[in-house]
Write a structure and sequence with these properties.
The complex is a heterodimer.
Chain A (H helix, E strand, L loop, with lengths): L2 E2 L10 H11 L10 H21 L6 E4 L2 H19 L5 E5 L4 H10 L5 E5 L9 H11 L3 E5 L13 H10 L4 E4 L11 H4 L3 E5 L10 E5 L25 H16 L1 H22 L4 E2 L13 E5 L5 H10 L2 E2 L6 E2 L2 E2 L3 H5 L4 H4 L2 E5 L6 H23 L1
Parallel strand pairs in A: 1-11, 3-4, 3-5, 5-6, 6-7
Antiparallel strand pairs in A: 2-8, 7-8, 9-10, 10-14, 12-13
Chain B lengths: L1 E5 L4 H12 L3 E8 L17 H14 L3 E5 L1 H17 L6 H20 L4 E3 L4 E5 L5 E5 L8 H4 L3 H5 L2 E2 L8 H10 L21 H9 L4 E4 L5 E5 L25 E7 L4 E6 L4 E12 L7 E7 L7 E7 L4 E10 L6 E6 L2 E13 L8
Parallel strand pairs in B: 1-2, 1-4, 2-3, 4-7, 8-11
Antiparallel strand pairs in B: 5-6, 8-9, 10-11, 12-15, 12-17, 13-14, 13-16, 14-15, 16-17
Helix pairs in contact in B: 1-2, 1-7, 3-4
Classes of the chains: A alpha/beta, B alpha/beta.
Amino acid sequence: MTRYLDHAATTPIHPQVAEAMAARLGVVGNPSSVHAAGREARRVVEESRERLAAAVGAHPTEVVWTSGGTEADNLAIKGLWWARHAADPRRTRVLVSAVEHHAVLDPARWLASQGAEVVELPVHDDGRLDLAALDAELAAHGDRVAVVSVMWANNEIGTIQPVADVVARAHAWGVPVHTDAVQAVGHLPVDLAAVRADAVSLTAHKLGGPVGVGALVVRRGLDLVPVLHGGGQERSVRSGTLDVVGVAGFALAAELAVSDLPAQTARLAGLRDALLAGVRDLVPDAVLRGPDPASGLRVPHNLHLTFPGCEGDSLIYLMDSHGVACSTGSACTAGVAQPSHVLLACGVEEVDARGALRFSFGRTSTPGDVEAVLAALPDVVTRARAAGMA
Amino acid sequence: MRVLAALSGGVDSAVAAARAVDAGHDVVGVHMALSRTRDEHRTGSRGCCTIEDASDARRCADVLGIPYYVWDLSERFEQTVVADFLAEYAAGRTPNPCVRCNEHIKFTALLDRATALGFDAVCTGHYARVAVGGDGARSLHRARDAAKDQSYVLAVMGPDRLARAMFPLGEVSSKDDVRTEAAARGLPVSAKPDSYDLCFVADGDTQGFLRERLGSRPGDVVDEDGAVLGRHEGAWGFTVGQRKGLGLRHPAPDGRPRYVLDVRPATNTVVVGAAELLSVRGLQGVDAVWFDSPAGLAGQGRAQLRAHGEPVPARWHGTEDRLEVALDAPVRGLAPGQSVVCYVGDRVAVQATVDRVRRGADHGRDG
């Protein structure tokens, strides 16, 4: 039996979502068509927009459907930089935290080829943004910053970022803020009206919806230059035929995840804490990365550890051979694990960063999953250590 | 047995893994990532290091129904194979990086890691045979298909590690059979071209790679009497026996072609001369790896000096780590750094790295 502890990579689709999508799949209709079939499809899209907006505290007109989190991040970073830089050519700077997902970091770094100056803001040991560094950067160059991007919650080590503090500081300089909330919605209370970020990336498949659909929630009146040009379906900011079935699945999944949140948060945090306690018992020198769960600064479903003397390649193989699906937590190129830029930014030595494992829980996780990991762990760590010495 | 099948993304390793599965072993596929800056697509005949090769390996594992992982051995590869390659050229020798890769990566780093993780053997697509003697000792033999035989580049692994190596292609009669078998099994690499260039040298431009990594260091090209005949950009760019690319402006007085006779890093000079001066009658090897029992440490048979070189009749004797080889017929252009493998019949007796060569009059046919 396979134990799936990689919900931060993707989590099973909610059965009600699958059912609703399946029921809709055979129905024809392009939401941009004016006939009856088109109008029916449009109604589904707009209802979905309203339902998603309600689930995250946004206004429906703020929701721009995308193909997922990566597209939303690209649209936010490039679209905001192009628009702000065009409006005020002195604004060349992009401020991002050093622990952003590659879907934010890489567009930002690419913008350097367009004349942008990219500043990767440092973080503390637990991955929390160094707000003093942001203050210093804004004080020195606040009138030359085009956009700030700081993620809501980190995908590898689960750190919750002080997004509201970032927004308050950046807005004082008239700088828009983007936040990647892909790992937050469904795991943390997310009220976009309260946080007042200007652009927020969301995705369906991390919260029980389908892969291939996401959204960028864009504050009304904010200028964005499109990344995808074409029919202009989404406020002329994003083109492409709207995915009626996908957005309907996304909206339903978001509603279910948000309504389930209080119960799931406590349950998943309990599983996570049980796993952490068990690991500390069995492998005393394993190191927790990211904030202490008791601090309240960590998403409830994430546990990230490094095992001294072990290679991630070996750990993953051995866990897999014991039927446990987990992750090294870091970005991959054709399956090759690179030392995590997140851990390095947290001050972890490269040699320690290699022995990383991320366990992430979700709706289908059970105490049996924790027991299976703990049953496998002594053998896994012993063998991985031996392989690390080889 | 629990078997780790090294999958390069090529046809040989895929069929080898398939045969291990057929034999009833519990097989796991591993693709070794040997470079951190990998090209997206395979170009021409370059090794196995592109993302496309990794994808091919993954699809073969899918077809075989075995788990598949990519292991990052790029740091070890850089520190051993590439570093040795550069150091050897810098020292005026001619290394064989494929031998070093088998020595340091496939049958050390990979094999040791596999053993620690609980595997009983590593399976590769090499063409060679392993035999088990009455006393349980393993011996390494040439493949049935002499044209594809790779025992020469495997001998460096030594007898102890043979017990944990598996070469399912040793008995096949030709590469065509392997391709036919791959196609019959539905493996998507059945028609993929063979690779033979160095996998870590971009565009196959070894000279460019050496220049980039070792730097330009101009010096003289001289004849055997020390007369300057031309200039070079770096002595590392030359291999004993090389004829082309010497950059000499004037032909030899006798009009005959000249060859590199010696590369001397100490004086940064390259010595060139007539073909007969290249003739080698014997050699001294270091870092000997004995397959024969140490008793006597002597033997006679044939010595092979290149991956696809013709074996020549030879006699040898040595100590635990040194080897003296006398060649019954002269060979041309043997360079320090090359690997020598001595065979008795089709069985490997000893392997060593050429340290010194003994030149002698060439009484050969085309002297």
